[in-house]
């Protein structure tokens, strides 16, 4: 079995949209701003990097990587992806899973950010309940409007992403369904091995490209 996401939406378009969602969520926030305001600021700021012809290659990717890791709560995402298995997993395996999961997301989608081609992002609404929030957006590409919702958790003054819903399909749930089947049949150790193999494959493809 290949370690790949399986989803209800068109896979190719899903990857491209994931690139855009990383673009939207990429920068640290100003104090005391709500989640929607932080997202809107992030779009304008990261576009400056993408449009800066003086920053290319590894330097650009390093800057994008730093920004992504400041905006995503990978530990919470990893915990939700593993679900009940998280409580049964050793601390060492939790740490390894979280690192591999964050590296896989970054390696899989950072190229999509660099391929950004001036699609428009419209911010529709925000819903805040305690330390959690949901922000609705629309990606406007050609004559198509694609809804993307972000689930965020408050960490001091920053709102960090822990799930993304593209056309009604949850990123966390998609990974969870795929990984849960591997853990059920083969165990946690096998899942970690497959994640390492997938990460190596992606990085090799990037180098070859």
3D architecture notes:
This protein has a 5-stranded antiparallel beta sheet with strand order 1-2-3-4-5. It has a single domain, classed as Tgt2/MlaC (Nuclear Transport Factor 2, Chain: A), CATH 3.10.450.710. The protein is globular and about 45 Å long. With 209 residues, the protein is α+β, with helices and mostly antiparallel strands. A hairpin with a 2-residue loop joins strand 1 (120-129) and strand 2 (132-141). Helix 4 (74-82) packs across helix 6. The protein has helices at 11-24, 35-50, 57-71, 74-82, 85-88, 91-114, 171-186, 188-208; strands at residues 120-129, 132-141, 144-155, 158-166, 169-170. The longest helix is centred in the middle third of the chain and has 24 residues, at 91-114.
Shape: globular
- As laid out across the biggest beta sheet, the strand order is 1-2-3-4-5
CATH classification class: Alpha Beta
* Biggest β-sheet description: 5 strands, antiparallel
**Could you say what the CATH architecture is?**
Roll
Number of DSSP strands? 5
* Overall mean pLDDT: 79
Secondary structure layout plus pairing:
Blueprint: H1 11-24, H2 35-50, H3 57-71, H4 74-82, H5 85-88, H6 91-114, E1 120-129, E2 132-141, E3 144-155, E4 158-166, E5 169-170, H7 171-186, H8 188-208
Antiparallel strand pairs: 1-2, 2-3, 3-4, 4-5
Helix pairs in contact: 1-6, 3-6, 4-6, 4-7, 6-8, 7-8
Briefly summarize what is shown.
This protein is of the alpha+beta class and 209 residues long. The protein has helices at residues 11-24, 35-50, 57-71, 74-82, 85-88, 91-114, 171-186, 188-208, and strands at residues 120-129, 132-141, 144-155, 158-166, 169-170.
């Amino acid at each position: 079995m290949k370690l790949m996401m399986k989803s209800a939406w068109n896979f190719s378009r899903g990857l491209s949209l994931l690139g855009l969602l990383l673009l939207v969520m990429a920068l640290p926030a100003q104090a005391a701003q709500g989640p929607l305001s932080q997202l809107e600021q992030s779009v304008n700021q990261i576009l400056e990097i993408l449009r800066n012809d003086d920053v290319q290659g590894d330097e650009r990717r390093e800057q994008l990587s730093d920004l992504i890791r400041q905006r995503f709560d990978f530990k919470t995402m990893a915990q939700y992806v593993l679900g009940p298995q998280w409580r049964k997993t050793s601390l060492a395996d939790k740490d390894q899973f979280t690192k591999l999961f964050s590296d896989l997301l970054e390696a899989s989608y950072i190229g999509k950010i660099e391929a950004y081609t001036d699609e428009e992002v419209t911010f529709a609404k925000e819903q805040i309940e305690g330390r959690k929030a949901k922000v609705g957006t629309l990606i406007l590409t050609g004559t198509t409007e694609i809804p993307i919702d972000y689930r965020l958790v408050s960490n001091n003054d920053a709102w960090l992403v822990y799930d993304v819903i593209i056309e009604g399909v949850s990123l966390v749930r998609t990974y969870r369904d795929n990984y849960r089947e591997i853990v059920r049949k083969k165990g946690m150790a096998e899942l970690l091995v497959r994640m390492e193999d997938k990460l190596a494959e992606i990085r090799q493809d990037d180098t070859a490209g």
